[in-house]
Structures are given as structure tokens and as C-alpha cells.
Write a structure and sequence with these properties.
Elements: H1 2-19, H2 25-57
């Protein structure tokens, strides 16, 4: 799966670079790089936000030590 993801990233970045006009290529590449890297951070923040929401909605779950 990791190899397939890497190949898809290379294809996506290549297509963005090929379809962008020469005078805009650096700017578009930088913004594309920023959004790709920021998406991982936002996904992590979303995961933490959902966990905190569940802790507030279901306080009994916080006191569970083990599921048996």
C-alpha cells in the first residue's frame, strides 16, 4: 500500500507541474506541497478532536479500565 501511495503522489505532483504555466510553476508547487503536508497535521487534529468529543459525550467511557 505504501508503494502505491508513493506512486500516486509522484503522478499527482508530476501532473500538477506539467499542467502549470512556467511562470506559476514554483508558486503552485509550493502551495501544493504546503497543502499535502498540512493535510496530515489536520487529520491528526481531527482525530484528537473526535476523541475529546467522545470523552465529553460519554463520560462513563473514561472510567473503563478494561473491556472484559
Amino acid at each position: 500500500m505504501g508503494a502505491a501511495d508513493t506512486i500516486s503522489v509522484v503522478i499527482r505532483v508530476s501532473l500538477v507541474q506539467l499542467m502549470t504555466p512556467d511562470d506559476m510553476r514554483g508558486k503552485v508547487g509550493a502551495i501544493n506541497y504546503l497543502f499535502i503536508n498540512a493535510s496530515n497535521q489536520l487529520g491528526g487534529l481531527g482525530t484528537v478532536a473526535v476523541a475529546l468529543l467522545w470523552m465529553m459525550l460519554f463520560p462513563a467511557l473514561r472510567s473503563v479500565d478494561r473491556l472484559e
